[in-house]
C-alpha cells in the first residue's frame, strides 16, 4: 500500500476505493495547505490549488480571497464563513482554526465569543434578517464608536 493510499484512508471521507495517484496527491497537498494555514478543515480553494499543482501548473493561480460572510440564524448564532481573523477589542487575536464558526448572539454562551448552544436553553429569539423596525443603515453609529 502506498503512502498516498494510506493518507487517504486516514481522511474522514469514508473512501474505501482506490483512487489515482494524482487525486491522492491533491488531497494530501490540500490537507497540508489547511494545516499550514492553521485550519482544521479543507476549503474548496485548498483543493483547487492542490489540483492545479498536481495536474501540471507550477503554482496555483492567484485568487482573491473569498470575503467573510456572516449569516444570522433564526433564534441562534451568527455563522461566520470564509477568510477572517477574530480579534478582541484591543486587537489581540482570538485563536480560531476553522473556516466556519458560530458566534454567540444571545450573550449567554460559556465560551464567548463562540456559541455553545445555550440559546436553545434560554429561549433566545431573533429573526434571521434585519428587525422590521430597524433604522436605515445610514443611521447606524460608526463601528469605532461602539
Automatic annotation (TrEMBL):
Keywords: 2Fe-2S, Iron, Iron-sulfur, Metal-binding. SMART domains: ZnF_CDGSH (SM00704). Residues 83-125 form the Iron-binding zinc finger CDGSH type domain. One of its GO terms (molecular function) is 2 iron, 2 sulfur cluster binding. Residues 127-146 are annotated as: Disordered. InterPro entries: FeS-contain_CDGSH-typ, MitoNEET_CISD. The keyword Transmembrane does not apply. It holds the Pfam family zf-CDGSH. One of its GO terms (cellular component) is cytoplasm. It comes from the Bacteria. This is Iron sulphur domain-containing, CDGSH-type. It comes from Conexibacter woesei (strain DSM 14684 / CCUG 47730 / CIP 108061 / JCM 11494 / NBRC 100937 / ID131577).
Amino acid at each position: 500500500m502506498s503512502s498516498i493510499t494510506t493518507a487517504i484512508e486516514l481522511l474522514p471521507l469514508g473512501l474505501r476505493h482506490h483512487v489515482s495517484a494524482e487525486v491522492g496527491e491533491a488531497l494530501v497537498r490540500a490537507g497540508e495547505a489547511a494545516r499550514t494555514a492553521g485550519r482544521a478543515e479543507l476549503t474548496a480553494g485548498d483543493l483547487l490549488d492542490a489540483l492545479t499543482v498536481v495536474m501540471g501548473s507550477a503554482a496555483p493561480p492567484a485568487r482573491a480571497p473569498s470575503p467573510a460572510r456572516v449569516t444570522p440564524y433564526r433564534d441562534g448564532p451568527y455563522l461566520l464563513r470564509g477568510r477572517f481573523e477574530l480579534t478582541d477589542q484591543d486587537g489581540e487575536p482570538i485563536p480560531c482554526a476553522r473556516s466556519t464558526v458560530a458566534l454567540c448572539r444571545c450573550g449567554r454562551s460559556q465560551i464567548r465569543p463562540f456559541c455553545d448552544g445555550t440559546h436553545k436553553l434560554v429561549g433566545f429569539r431573533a429573526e434571521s434578517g434585519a428587525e422590521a423596525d430597524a433604522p436605515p443603515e445610514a443611521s447606524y453609529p460608526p463601528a469605532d464608536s461602539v
